[in-house]
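Researcher: Hi, I'm a grad student and pretty new to this. My advisor asked me to get structures for two proteins we've been looking at. I'm not sure of the right format, so I'll just paste the first sequence and hope you can take it from there.
Model: That works fine. Here's the first sequence with its structure tokens right after it:
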Amino acid sequence: MADPPGCCHPCATCLLCLYSCHWITAKKEKRKGLRTTKCDCSWFLFLFCVFLFTLVWLYFAIIILNDFHNFNEFIFKQRKLWLDWSLVLLIATAMLVTYSATLLVLALCLQLCGQPLKLHWLHKTLLILTALVVAAAFTGLGIKWAEEWRSARVSLQATGPFLHIGIVGGMTLLAWPLASFIYHTRNTGLMLFLLLVYCMAMIALYLAPLGITSPCIMEENQLPPKPALVGHRGAPMLAPENTIMSLHKAVDCDVQVFETDVMVSADGVPFLMHDEELTRTTNVQVVFPKRTALNSTAFNWTDLQKLDAGSWFLEQRPFPTVQSLSASDRNQVTEQRIPSLQQVLEAAKQSNISIMFDLRPENHSDYQSFVNATLKVILQSGIPLQQVLWLPDGFREQVKQQAPGVQQVYGRKRLQNEKEPLLHVNLPYQDMSSEEIRQYRQDNISVNLYVVNQPWLFSVLWCSGVSSVTTNACQVLKEMKHPIWLLPSSTYLMIWIVVDCVSFLAILWAFFLLK
């Protein structure tokens, strides 16, 4: 088999060394008469599949970063260990993708150089391990975090047009080694099979935009207003969650609603806390070491005031933004205590910001007394009731009677033939399609979706017409003056045609040049 023009022996020797783990020159390899066997072709196909598998997992890893703080909290509840596992995920994924991509590039270069694809057993073992690791990751995702499959579907609305361009480009480049293989193989059946599969794949890719939909394919004058921002427990990337400092930081980010969680102490004082236990966001292990496993509602207000609700933020660094805090902010963090609902309502009234909250835990035997205590504080605070958004479903009718001015927010979609129409809904962003968002908007129903941290996701929901989003990253979304991308349908059509035409011509050139 003669080497194709432009392939030097030293380069081929280096490629053989890396791929086959044998330091043997290309000339000696040729003299030995070694050829790519069917088994070698099978391993190349496996390598190609593993590369695609890891690439798909990389895409998922990037998408789930929006929700990864929830995973960190889940691990902490299970193991009492705080770590930003997103870094571990990205580093491990990058290593797997880089390894499989490097082997694939080596194999393609060897094919262009007319050298045999003799994959070493060590690479074969590592490829099998790579495939098993990624399969385990997908399995774990499906079992423990199934809603992320719906997140992936949402993400395709943001990335679909660009994924199409990238895949077409990658498949076009694949035409060069494919043409080299076809012109050098003596197996007619295999040649026809590969050509048929490749042609069918390219035709499908060329027609794929017919099935790609995105709310951001629209004219500029059709873009809905920018969604309002709801601070998830305040501004948790800039201050300890559910604290007065977090509320003030949220106000600085132009947040219109402070979203939080309310519990009621053993002596009847409503206070802000998300977790059932105090271990993650306070120093309860130090102050009350024998009571760390108790529910937050088992502590009286006097004991709760003894806890430091800020220092954990500097120690655990739940978000990378903690490192950029100023010295004055760090001092303020260490001074934070668990705030009462009364204190928060006073701060919200002064800042002219609304407050939306859950009342936890809803399965508590004294939940009705929790509702009564919370309503009492709200009515006595003097805050305009229209600034209070009530989320809990328990005893909602009682709340409507005692505080009719409070805005009722529902954590569900509207029902057919509903007696009282919904005015506000609060749902996970995975639970509403763009079409439903548009329909609710036309019917004057305010839609708030949570938790939205990444600009790509905010852009999709903005284009869809959502009213507001709950976010951890208010400082990031505040700066967005426009969706990341917005394409008129005519422009998208032109890009589609140009990309497909350029790809087709490049494939013809590859097969003609290597003939």
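Researcher: Oh nice, that was easy. Here's the second one.
Model: And its structure:
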Amino acid sequence: AQLRYSVPEDREPGSSVGDLAKDLGVEVQSLAARNLRLVSEGGQRHFQVDLVAGVLLLNSRLDREALCGQSPTCSLHLQLVMENPLQLHRVEVDVLDVNDNAPQFPKPEVVLEITEVANPGTRLPLEVAEDPDMGSNSISTYELSPSEHFALSINVRGDGVKMPEIVLEKALDREKVAVHHLTLTALDGGNPVKSGTAKVTIHVLDANDNPPVCDPPISKVHLEENVPVGTLVTKLNVTDLDEGPNGDVEYSFKTSNNAPGKFTKLFSLDPRTGEIRTKGPLDYEESSAYEIAVRARDKGSPAMEGHCHLRVELIDINDNSPEIVLTSLSSPVQEDATPGTVIALIGVKDSDSGDNGQVHLQIAKDLPFKLVSSFKEHFSLVTNGPLDREKASGYNITVRAVDSGSPQRATQKTFYLRIADVNDNAPNFSSPFDTAHVQENSLPGTSVFSVSASDPDEGSNAKLSYSILHNGMQDVPISTYFRIDQDNGTIYTVRALDYEQDKVFQVPVEVKDAGSPALSSTAVVHVFVLDENDNAPTIVYPSVPKGSAFHQTIPTLAEPGYLVTKIVAVDADSGHNAWLSYQLQETAEALPFQVERRSGEIRVAQALRESEDSHRLVVEVRDNGTPSLSASVVIVISPEENSVQDFAKSLDLPKSSPKDTNLTLYLIISLVSISLVSCVMFAVVAARCL
């Protein structure tokens, strides 16, 4: 919004200028919290804000004449900035003129000369008085002390300045009165009226009775600013009807109250030809027009003079580039900011006028931002679409200001806007399913597998922690078998695993970030337990106590190939670790028996002699693991004449018991499991290769 106040220039410091809280429509108590502050567009701070009362106070006494000179209006521009939300308000304070300056003539005494042959109606121009005040407080009129021969005439110049002139009303007689003393009084229009005086002394001379005359007396010239030094402005046209020295005219500048003497630094006057040329650079932004007064004096005795008034109006050219002022910038901005969120407040200034001072702001169209005009020469940069920090963590925003002049002038300003992260991305595993293998009986703390997840967010939103979920598939919680390092995702065993008890585990792993609210995802790791040869073969038949021997009788006349008995053994391991082989331990003497390596059948290898005693055999059962494990049984074979071979009896195989049935079932399940694991592994490898 824009506020406007007015204050007289003589107001004491600390005086109230306006009620900001009321005019802005905000509570006084919230001004301090919203960090209300005053930003002056000039170099001096003439005002201050009372946050307790919510009013704008005068910080120092104002002098309108020092601030604005002869400008008809005098305004000071301020900016008020409030936060939460960020707002910018423009305040314009008009400094009102007070009649604090009395009129004053450039010289306290003015000496004029007039020939005695001057005709009634002859005019003697006078110096105008100066009054820094403006409007009704400036010079209102002039008064001349009573005189028999002279009267006062006031003419109004094109720029409104009143020019006093003394008019001869009655013919002069130098022999009667050679010098006339008058008093000229300048009165302003203030209340109370202030005045200034100058003494006017008029010498009555004889002879030269034709003054130089300007044609026209008042002229106007248009000139472009920044023309080269030495450019001809105009040549005065002055005529004098006298001859000889009385008609020889010399030119000189005459100062006026319009920036007294200032134009003499910018313009030069040839005293012989009356040519006026530029002497310094002209700047439209410093002054758009100059009033030049020229005195044309002849060389008669007494000399007579005429006055030429020239108004030089400058034509503005586009010689100033726009200026970009970044008033406020909110960086960083959250990536979930809604469209229309104010990012920055930007002001522009161009010292040129008209179209040359009309400025347009623009930014690149591919940015998710746009410019919104707040009020004259002030813009807001707002979001124009969704922001995604994962795609762009920041933007280099270049604001380009272009005026409407010809040729156009442009300037640009670049600033960096950082996008703050929001936890809008859940962590992702590299694969939702993974396979791992671990040897049974591995020590607790053995590393099994490392899962890996990534999160495109940053900071705490990308800080990941891993944990194992209970899937309910095992009777015992999965956490009693495995644990996971919450920082790096490495899975470790908690205790030694037994292949014969559990062959495969499904370990559900959850990864969670540290954002608020936290986001998570899960993956499953299939852990296959690899068998180890940790079970020795168990002899099922014959079943004898440890340290005892099994006694078996055979006929004395048993021939080679005769089946003596059969050793039956099992191994709780699987695969190669469960492949069993049977053999006889070597003895010092040769035995007439042999054992089948795979079946465990003991047969007669050679004919027995009738006198042979019993034989002691040690049968060893060994698996195919690494290292190999074994078991042994002692069998004592005694030949007997009356022994009759009964295969079923000699084997004396025990009937199938539930325990043996379970053992067989375990073997089948082991084989099927191994087959399934192999199929799964082949499928995973094939999928990854594809």
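Researcher: Is there anything I should tell my advisor about the second?
Model: You could mention this: The radius of gyration is 59 Å.
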